[in-house]
Automatic annotation (TrEMBL):
Residues 1-25 form the signal peptide. Residues 63-170 form the TonB-dependent receptor plug domain. This is Iron complex outermembrane recepter protein. It holds the Pfam family Plug.
Amino acid sequence: MLPVPRVELRLALPFVLLAAPSAFAQVATPVTLSELSVQGRGDPGGGSLTVPSVAAQRAAVNATVGSVAFVDATEFQNRYANTLRDVLKDTPGVFVQERYGQEMRLSVRGSGIARGFHLRGLELLQDGIPLNLADGSADFYQIDPLALRSIEVYKGGNALTFGATTLGGAINFVTPTARTAFAPNILRLDGGSFGTIRENFQVSRISGPVDFLINGTVTNSDGYRDHETQRTRNFNANLGYALAPGIETRFYAGVYLTDQKLPGTLSLFNALNNPTLASPSAITGNQSRKVETERIANRTSFALDVGKLDIDTWAIHKSLYHPIFQVIDQDGWTYGISPHWAGTFDVAGYRNDTILGLRASAGQNSALQFVNIAGQRGGQTLKALQSASNYEIYGENRFWFLPDLALMTGAKAFSSNRTYSNKGGFPANPRAQFANATYEGLNPKIGLLWQPLPEIQVFGDITRSRDVPDFSDLAQQNILRTTFVPLAAQRAWTYEAGTRGRIDRLAWDVTLYRSELRDELINFSINPGLNIPAATFNAPRTRHQGVEAAVSLDVARDLTGHGDTLGVSQIWTHNDFRFIADPVFGDNRIAGIPRDVLRTVVTYAHPSGFYLAPSVDWVPQGAFADHANTLRVPGYALVNVQTGIDFKNGVSLFLNARNLADTRYVSDVSVVTNAAATMGGAASLAAFYPGNGRSVFGGIRAGF
């Protein structure tokens, strides 16, 4: 049910209104706006104090004043889901596109636009606890779709519930506990094209006040292209213990090992005509990315007379061996602590919901570089130390001055420091360099939520965001040396209005937004073919605006008289990202992301468990490859089909055929400033990632 009723909180019912770690945060996409959920074992709510039930998470989302989305793992648990694209492709406003293996472009509202690697402008969390490193950068490799119970997407300033105020917002990946797991034991085997095979297991148990869960996934794939072999090993575990009535602690541990060969970028001609090729420099340099990440975290929750207090702590160790144009060899730690209180109480007889939080995080990273000799270390070229620290305080308040109308206000104050020490002393990098930059600010938020009917909401809000540059932006690399560039923080005002709800067979989630930016952090590649990290500059004025829309309709019910259904859903993300009176690029479009991304899905489901879901992914016009707007990649349409059957005994069989027409297309671009002005012209520019050709994947899953 959409409204969250006023209930006096007691120790015995701490999670009825408070879905920690985000008290008031997710909303379903049209296909999940109903109260459908699958409960785990254990207490009747299917959750516990540290991790509420999926139903409680779903209920909490509907009080959010702004655009958010909620994805229940029931939507993909019995499907082939290998990457973040597979679990987020039906979420409007989220642009996620594969490059190769687990490497993707992930952007919300143009966050990190033109960023050719890693992630910027978007916070990733697992179980409400940050995954980003202390400087704000993040990777996707530790996110295992087979180890998820739900996904919460908070677009833009709506992520303030976590203390996040970047342009893109935050995505929280919630893993199962023994109380929310689908079954005590799960075994899964799937695979298919490109020599792909994947094994997954999950075991969970509850014993009195103790519960634990262990999940592991092993993936091996040769990849669609030459030199794209991928080997990953992901392990997640959590252990919960009810220390006393109203007090619970939960430990999380994860180990994530990735060994990914990098095929690099191709010319536009080769991307469309010889897409399985690898870049010559990728072969000669044996380019790859080997990442070893270990993560440990804890949440301890206290149910109070009013509200609930969560205290999160975490530590992340990451080791990177990355031969590209040079061998990048890094090793670092990130650690942090965050207390977070959320509660509901009366103010002069009116209901009031409040969130208060603090976050402190810091980390150091040893950054070494060497000459790349066929993937091995040659002579050293860089020895640097990167240090980052962040201190944040935030709050959000929702005051229901009418039964169906709430005023939301909030703000975050922060101070972030970036310190860089280049030791120098090498022929290619003889001079030492020490630099220090501190970024401070206050990001306010105000909005209204109107709920005229139980399942219809209308909202509007204004938020302020700031994106602090990470070390990939600040420590810029060219062929000769690494130099610290003191960039300004990106700042923006975002205005959004939208509605979500359901009327009988029709469900919708539609948001319009506009962001007016100053000093946007814009990337461009110096030489994409050599895989040199992109340079970054501050664009004086830019504008991001667009539409995030998803509509679903139950076209027919009881087609055969046995309770079967036929439904159709349409997802549309419209992106209009531009420079504004830029001294170099005028009012050109910012390159990297296509203007329109559409996805249509038709789903037939039978009560026996059989389903069939053909779909079309359509990009009418491809993205610009350069900020000068001299070169645009072609649009494309991909036809896919997904089918399977879920048996009542917990066994599921599934099959997923993708790009049935074997369409040749460009999935992503390594952006440059001016393609026509590059050496050899646009025809020789190697800046394009070809999309995967026709593929078929299938598997079996058993829960018991």
